[in-house]
Amino acid sequence: MISVKNTTHIQSALLDWYAQSAIPYPWRGKGASPYVILVSEFMLQQTQASRVASLLPAFLKVFPTLESLSAATNAQIITAWRGLGYNNRAIRLRDTALAITTTFNGVVPDEPSVLRTLPGIGAYSSESLPCFIYGTRTIVVDVNVRRVYSRLMTSQPHTGALESMSSVRTFAKSIIPDREAATWHHAVMDLGSTICKARSAHCEACPLTNICPSAYLPKAPFQTQRKKEPLLRGEPRRLWRGRLVEKLRDAGKDGLHLEALLPDAKACGVELAEWMTLIDGLKADGVINVGKTIALSD
What we know:
By secondary structure, this protein is mainly alpha-helical. Among the domains are: 32-134, Endonuclease III, domain 1 (Orthogonal Bundle), CATH 1.10.340.30; 231-296.
């Protein structure tokens, strides 16, 4: 385990680096409101930060306040979510905004245990929201943070190696500064996304190279196998699901008849059953209404 002396060195070196190299995302810094941070945290759950940064301003023009977001219909929120994917997040964000407005007087809770009772907020977001909104010294560990901490904890055999989440959280307790917790976590995330990457580590540019036990570690001798996704027409089903929603966004409140919605009006048999499974899933998730036509849900 890193000594107290080295901990202080790591903290100062990384924060100094971040002061010069911080990525100026709109949800960071003193100018970011709790509402903007809340919205961005939902968007960032499954979308790259650069994409969120480009789409967030347009979303905030449509829903500039927590109250306006809490009053949105499913169709309105999904339409404004265009380009972000995983549309269920939009509905959960609206439901969380409604809960905060009605139950917590418009104030985002600062307790992780309370936050976890809200729609769409899991273990990560329940820790990140208090940290980034209130500066609370919580343990925020995403994939980038876990990788950086793993490499700092002990000499790793290659870029693909990671420490267990429980040991990473124990290490985090010792390394997170008592002050500037939000700035610290942003710094670690930036280091992991720009220098201490998953498949390669640019140690020559890292502010922690002289103290990192994993400096200049070799690349993994294997490539991590991603879990295979269910396919439709040779592409992930989630992509087709997104395309159906995109068509319905463009169609507006009148929606589309089934034959106009599907990419092949003559679909039949097994393939038609697969399309209907996608549509049934969107309906079950509250994304669409199915009647004479299919439209985004109210």
